[in-house]
User: Fold Endonuclease V from Hevea brasiliensis.
Amino acid sequence: MPSWLETQHSLKKRLIDEDDFEWQLPTSSRNRSSVERHGHQVVLRYVGGVDVSFLKEDPSIACGILVVLDLQTFQIVYQDYSLVRLRVPYIAGFLAFREVPILLPLIEKMKNSQNPYYPQVIMVDGNGMLHPRGFGLACHLGVQANLPTIGVGKNLHYVDGLNEEEVIRLLQAGRRSGEDFVKLVGDSGRILGAAMRPPRGSQDPIYISIGHRVSLDTAIKIAKITRQYHLPEPVRQADLRSRDYIREHKPMLLNLANSTWKTTAAIDLFNDMASSGVLEFPIYKDGLESFCRWHLTDLHTTDQCDMFRSFLIKKVYYEKFALTEQQYFAMGLEDFLISNGKRLLRFLRN
DNA sequence: GCGACAG
DNA sequence: ATCTTGTCGC
Assistant:
């Protein structure tokens, strides 16, 4: 099994950072004819948006959504949900490994059914090239779905020396010239994306970056024409609707959370350790990523097991299963496997 | 050395 | 991601 790092690097080779599509951007003039050729729109009309929302009481339960906005009417013409139980932690810089498995099937389902609203480009709730290794969620999803994608971030990832204060300063400097966007140049000199000035009243910028098969200039143009409020409409609608879905189904979801949670979490942990003999976890150190590795063969003494236990609690259990500290202890899981080193040793021998 | 870290 | 009512301003 390749590591997440290796997967990112190899998928990145397939990334296309320039315009690669049949359609054209709609002109500012109003004569938007719905001309079609070979069943495909010649002018950009259907813009997708994806997002994932979570259940507060059990963050391992999530709802992924795909919506499609019709630019001609500015209405949502398609939406589809997917309810999932997450087994992958959120780790900064590796968001795609958590969300792509949810979102990709939604896209493929639509493609396989030859839905006429199949999006020509998808706006993703998460960054694209504006990412520590230049391959964020939007890139990852775009490459795997082979669709043009645009990254739309609400927060600036810690990457290439960029910081938010500087961005806000740049945006305000560009205000006089009427410029709504500022391109973001990292310490390396590379252009990583662009910051979009929020509508007046709000302070936080949003961040646009290349996902796949779209140039930054095109991404910016599409962000412009799809923005009515703070966020571009496809992403905003995906956000709102997936949140609504969670809210509406809350009673049922709470049942689900209580019924299978405990055993699933414990069994998965067993399997992970037993099959690979090693637990790996990516961590950041001095702006570089590395892996924290624990080999089961390292666990000879009670002390080592105790250290392993605290690592496990801090770095694996909470994040791997997206548990909060309170939830973790409420589950009583520490008694099950890792209450102390001796107990862990006993488990390892069997 | 620590801390900054998309959703 | 999630937590949250009223409130300040156009």
Remarks:
- Confidence is low (pLDDT under 50) at residues 260-271, 327-350 of chain A.
